[in-house]
Design brief:
Blueprint: E1 5-11, E2 19-25, E3 41-44, E4 57-67, E5 74-83, E6 106-116, H1 149-161, E7 166-171, E8 177-185, H2 187-207, E9 211-213, E10 228-233, H3 235-239, H4 243-253, H5 257-262, E11 286-288, E12 295-297, H6 299-302, E13 310-312, H7 321-342
Parallel strand pairs: 1-5, 11-12
Antiparallel strand pairs: 1-2, 3-4, 4-5, 6-8, 6-9, 6-10, 7-8, 10-13, 12-13
Length: 343
């Protein structure tokens, strides 16, 4: 019998997909940790809203393997879901991404989340009351300004040990709110790493008795919500760019605004209000260094001969990264051609 532990990870069929996992021992002692050497597996889709009980078998198809940061000779196996007849499941959003063009797209996700206690309130919020107003918590230090840093640091260490592209962390504007940044060269790699980073966050939070929520606005009132700002670039934007081109490109996103909102997460209408560093959900806008715009043209881009990347600030924290990168790539394909003609 083999001795390598394989923890399989996949997205279920709920409207806001949950991460599911189960583990097995690889039967072969010669297992090398590659996708090709990782067996397919199955699961009961009737328990994940991905099948009916009379035909419940779904297939887990490994697509990327990571070292498990918590165990020796163990791996995390990210999977796509297929029907038992071999065609992609309707909930398999990863399968939508264009394989021919995804490699030239670089994505950097700014994943915000809030750590909640068992009483349904953000960590650090007093029972029956509220902390002092927002202002001193963003990128703060000190026990009176941040909560659960030990969990956050442990999560980042685990992501690095698992060879994920998590490049940074910071405390966010709301007390108990944090962010990690996840970067990848290639749309698939970036989105895959984000899913596994979310998995590790949930896994680690179990022992800290805290809940990491990606709800974009779990606390009403004058508090910031949580987003998943999505930074993106591709060859022409990185290598050529130009102010006229970039502004025309951004304008080319305008006709597709609702198409983006439709796949940018649930509950986003509670977050995209035009306040708290957001644009209104029903209006499209863009601007240099404007955090109240739908798309921000970052300082890096404007100070590097208008070459670099753009930031789509509309995705909610609970957005499916596969749907986000697919929608951005499809819009860029159209907007890029129009922008070239405009300049």
């Amino acid at each position: 019998m083999g001795n390598a532990r394989l923890d399989y990870i996949w997205l279920d069929g709920y409207d806001i997909a949950n991460i599911r996992t189960k583990a097995q021992i690889h039967p072969d002692n010669s297992y090398n940790g590659s996708v090709e050497d990782t067996p397919t597996w199955g699961f009961d889709g009737s328990s994940t809203k991905q099948a009916e009980g009379y035909d419940s078998d779904c297939i887990l198809q490994p697509v990327r393997v990571y070292p498990n940061p918590f165990r020796q000779n163990a791996y995390l196996v990210l999977c796509e879901v297929y029907h038992r007849d071999g065609h992609p499941h309707e909930t398999n959003t990863r399968h939508l991404i264009d394989r021919e063009s995804e490699a030239e797209f670089w994505f950097g996700f700014e994943q915000e989340y809030i750590l909640m206690t068992s009483n349904g309130r953000p960590a650090g919020f007093p029972d029956g009351g509220y902390p002092e107003p927002q202002g001193p918590y963003y990128c703060a230090v000190g026990a009176h300004r941040v909560e659960a840093r030990e969990l956050v640091e442990e999560h980042w260490d685990a992501c690095l040990a698992a060879d994920l592209g998590v490049t940074g962390i910071n405390a966010e504007v709301l007390l108990g709110q944090w962010e990690f940044q996840c970067f990848g060269k290639g749309a698939l790699r970036a989105a895959d790493d984000l899913i596994v980073a979310r998995y590790l966050l949930h896994f680690i939070s179990e022992k800290h008795d805290l809940i990491a929520t990606f709800d974009p606005k779990p606390i009403t009132g004058d508090w910031n919500g949580s987003g998943m700002h999505s930074n993106f670039s591709y060859n022409y934007l990185r290598d050529v760019g130009g102010q006229d081109y970039i502004e025309a490109l951004c304008e080319g996103f305008r006709p597709f605004h609702q198409d983006h909102i439709d796949v940018y997460g649930a509950g986003n209408e509670r977050r995209l209000t035009g306040s708290h560093e957001t644009a209104s959900i029903d209006q499209f806008s863009f601007g240099a260094s404007n955090r109240g715009a739908s798309i921000r043209i970052p300082l890096y881009t404007t100070t590097h001969d208008w070459k670099g990347y753009l930031e789509d600030r509309r995705p909610a924290s609970d957005a499916d990264p596969y749907l986000v990168v697919d929608r951005i790539m499809r819009t860029v394909k159209v907007a890029h051609e129009k922008a070239l003609k405009a300049v």
